[in-house]
Structures are given as C-alpha cells and as structure tokens.
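Question:
Now give any protein.
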Amino acid sequence: MRQALGVVLAAVALVAAPARLGAQPPPPGVDAALDAARAVRGQSLEVSVLTFENGAILWERFGHNALVITDTLLGESRAYNWGVFDFESPDFLVRFLTGDTRYWLAIWPTRAMLEEYVRLDRTARRQVLALDAVQRAALAEYVEWNALEENRYYRYDYYLDNCSTRVRDAIDRVLGGTLARAFADVPASPRTWREETARVTDGDWPPFAGIHVALGRNADRPLTRWNEGFIPMQLAAHLTTVMIPDGNGGTRALVAHDTVLYRAQRPALPDRAPDRRLVALLVGVGLAALLLLLGRAASTSPGVPPLAARVLMALWYGVGGVLGTALLLAGTVTKHAPYMGSNLSLLQVHPLLLVAAVVALLAGVSARIARSLGWLTALVAALAVLGLLLQLAVIDQQSWPVLAVTVPMHVACALVCRGRAVPPLPSSSGQAAQARAA
C-alpha cells in the first residue's frame, strides 16, 4: 500500500509539474514519460460532462454545462465551469456592448453545483466518458492548468468560444481531434446561428426581435455539428454519437453512461424555432394601418400630415434611427462584426431615420420642411423595398420578421406624406407675373 501510494504521488508530481511551471501541458502522445505517469494517475479518475437545460432568465435559456473530474482515490469531485461572469464589474456594460465580455473558469464542488441548478429547476444530465487512463489524467492536468489565475480568463464569444465550446475543445484535445472529425458534417436538417438563437429566445419578444435585427447574413450559414456545440444540449446530444478506439482494434461509444439526474418541471425548449413571420406581418400591417388612419385626419396646415401622424412617424423613425446607428457601429467597429456585419437590416433601420424623425416633428413649421419630409419618406421607403428585393432574389438572409414589420410602415409613411403633397413654391418670375396681373 505504501509503495502504491508512493507511485501515485510521484505520478501526481510529474503530471502537475508543467502546470506549476506555467507551461501548457501537452496532449497525450507527445511525451512518453509523462504519459506513463498519466497511466498511473488516471486509474483513479473519472471524467463526465454535466449538462443543465434551459432556465427561466434569458441568459439561462441557452443552457449550461461543466466538465467534471472525479478522483475516486481522494474522494473528490470537481466541476470546471467556464461560464462565470460578473454583472457588477465596473466595465461589464462597455465590454458587453463592444463584444469584449470577460468570462472565466471557476471550479465548483460537483455536488454544490448540481444542487444549485436543481434548486433553479433545471434539468440535469450526466454523461460519463469512456476515456482511457492517459486521456483522463491529461484532461485533469489541462483543466487544472487552465484554472490558474493567469490562464482562466477569456473573451467570451456567443457562438465560437463559450462555456460549452470550452468543454467540447478540452475533450477533443485529449482525443486528438476525434470530435472535430466526427462533427465536421452538416446535418441533413441544418441549423443556423439565427435559428438556434431565435429558438432559445422565442417568447421573450424584445430579445427575439433584437436578434433578428442584429444578426447579419453570416448568421444564416448552415452549421456543422461542431458549430452546433455552442448550445450545451446540442453538444450533449452529439457526444452520444461518437465512437472512439477501444485499444483492442475495435471501437466503443465515447459516452459510457448517460443519466438524467433531475427532470425540470418547466417545459423543454422546442427542437426548432417557431415561425413568427405571420405575427410580425400582422404587427407591421397593423401599425401601417394606424398611421394611414391618422394621416386621413384634418390638418391645421395645408399639405402637412396631421400632428398625430407626424408624432407616430417621429417615434417610428427615432427608434429605427437609434437601432440603425447602434447596428452600424456594432457591425463595423466592435467585435460583434462577424455576426452583425453584412446586414441587410441596415436598409430598414439606419442613421438617416434620425434625420427623418426630426423633420417629421418640424414639418408643420414651413412648406419647405414639409416637402423635405415627403422626399425623405420616399427615400426611406425605397431603401426598405430594395432590401426586400435583395433578400428575395439575391442575398440569403433570413431576417423576414424584420422586413414584415418595417416595410409596411416605411411605405405607409411615404403614402401619408404623398397624400399631403405640398404644391411647389412659386418661382420669382411667377410672383412677378402675378403682381403685374394684379
């Protein structure tokens, strides 16, 4: 017993040495002596993935997961959680808006983490992985190195680098790229970043609408199963399909045991995003009908839309202008650009609308301003229709709910102003002729 304990302690020291020195520990197959020590150390380790399904709050709806390392020799189980952030940090809002959000890896006692998520009524699933001893020890070594203060922080990316992709990448690292190869295909029923985000946010209307406005055409590319792993529940599903070498010339399933530890009372997320285009169209047509109705009322100034119609137009253009300005900045000068750039929604909401909002309020001041409002609304409507035609015929961007709301309203604004068209100002020669006639 004493000799066995000495071997284990020596193996622990050898495996932990790279982490103590600050160097990233190599994956299996690089250092034969290190792998020999890992083979001893890994005998007492168990590796599993703990997945929690959707919660009640918006950011909980995407699910969560953690990598669990259990040491049967020490009687200790630790959950490595890459999803930690701090709302209270002084620079959180700026980092969030610029796409430079700071997350980090924290270690939880597994039982405490499980109890906390069960308390929040979130379905918990545990998948024990059939890794060999060397792979288990190498994985434990890597996550311990990653948990060091100088290594644990990272720039969170919604789709490419989050709590779930970190779990996926850590497992793939000790498997020598097996997951990357197994998940390289696009499923027969492909998903997209837009669809997955809409599926998760459906029912929370402001973020649901904001996602459709914010995401550009890059978010509509079909995802491989590797990319789908940004959703923890999808990663858990895909792990069950992976086969790995069994060491005897055959293969075995990567997931050795798959257990639902707790089933939530709340309903699970739908498998596919519901189609909300008809609802969006009803909203757009309803707002447009209201504006046209207000535009039929009598006006205190000839050729100028009634005040109520102009106020509604100013509110519509003001909101769209603010959104468009934020969208333009996000898609060009922030780290959100890969997903929010190349966005046809900029033909629906854009900074020009801020000018239109001001002109709509001032249109009653003079005929010249009223005429400017007519030209502006016609230009805005033309851009909106152009965006619709481009999306129909040329560019594959699935932001149809945005078009369903914005195009009817932009066209209605132009119709209201056209119906109140101001006659052209008389020219100086015309004025002189009128004076002579008088």
